[in-house]
Amino acid sequence: MSETGAQLFARLEGRRCLKDIEPQLFPEDCGPLQGDIVELHGTEGTAKTEMLYHLIVRCILPTKHGGLEAEVMFVDTDFHFDTLRLVTILEARLAQLAAGAASEKHPKEGTEEEEGDEETVKACLRRLFVVHCSSSAQMLLSFHYLEGWFSSRPALGLLVLDSISAFYWQDRSGGGESVPRQEANLRKCAQLLDRLRRDYCIVVFATVHAVMRNYGSSEASSSTAPRPCEAPSPSSSSSSSNFRRWSTVVDFDKPYLCRAWQRLVTHRLVFSKSDILKGRRPVFSVACTTTRTRGVKRSSFCIADTGLQFL
C-alpha cells in the first residue's frame, strides 16, 4: 500500500502526544514522546499491571475529564487483563471528578449525571482494543496485523504489551541450545515494533517479568557506597548502554531479553514492593530512568479499590 506525502501527514498529525500521561512517574520534561518505548520491569506482584490500568484510564478519558482522549491497543499475553477492574478504576475516576464539581451542580441533575457517566464509560471503552496471544509466533503475527490498525486510526497512539517476556521460557525451551533460535521470534517482534513506532509515531508500554538476579546489585546494597547496576554486555549499545549508570534499585533488575529489544527501550521503570504499609495497604516503589537524563525519578504508590494512588 502506497500513499502520498500529504496522506502521510494527514494520518500522523492526529496522533496524540502522551508526554504528560503521568507526570509523577517520569522525570520532568522526560515523559514518553511519540516513538518511545517504555519498559515496566519487576517481579510478580509489584503492581505493574495496576500501573498499566492507571495509564490506560488516563489515555481513554476524554480531554474534558482530564484525559488524553487517545485510543489504546492492549496485547494480553499473560491473560491477566481484567475488564471489570479497569471499569472500576474508570468509574472511580469519573466519580472523583463529579464530586469535585458537585457544588456547582443543581440537585435535580443527579440522575442526568449518572446517565452521563455511564455514556462516558462506554465511550472510553470504545477507545480500548484488546488482543490475546498465546505464543511468541502469534504475537509476531498480531504485530503484522496491527500495522493496518495503526495506519488507519490516527487516534490509536498507545500500544500496551503485558507482557513482552511472557514466552521467554517457552522460546528458550523450544530453541534448544542455540541462543539465536531461542531469541528468533522476540528479535523479529522487536524489529517490527521498531518499524511500527518509527513509521506510525506510537508509544509502546511493555511489562517484563524480572527473573534474572543482579548479583552486582546485591553486593552494592551491602556496601556503604552503592554501585551502578550491571550492564547487559560491554558490547551492547544505544539505549541499553545508557542504563549502566542506574543506581541499585532491586536485586532482580537485570535486563535479560534479546539485545534487539534492549536497544529500543527509552524509559525503564523498575518496580518493587516495600515492607511499609499505608493504611494497611502495601506500598510499592518505582524508579524511572530514561536515555535523555542522568537522573532517577523515584515515586511510591499504593493500590486502593478505586485504583492507584501516588504518595
Automatic annotation (TrEMBL):
RecA family profile domain sequence ranges: 10-210
Taxonomic path: Eukaryota, Metazoa, Chordata, Craniata, Vertebrata
SUPFAM superfamilies assigned to the protein according to its UniProt record, in alphabetical order: P-loop containing nucleoside triphosphate hydrolases (SSF52540)
CDD domains: XRCC2
GO cellular component, one term: centrosome
Region (Disordered): 218-242
Native organism: Alosa alosa (allis shad)
PROSITE patterns: RECA_2
Molecular functions (GO terms): ATP binding; ATP-dependent DNA damage sensor activity; four-way junction DNA binding
Name of the molecule in the record: RecA family profile 1 domain-containing protein
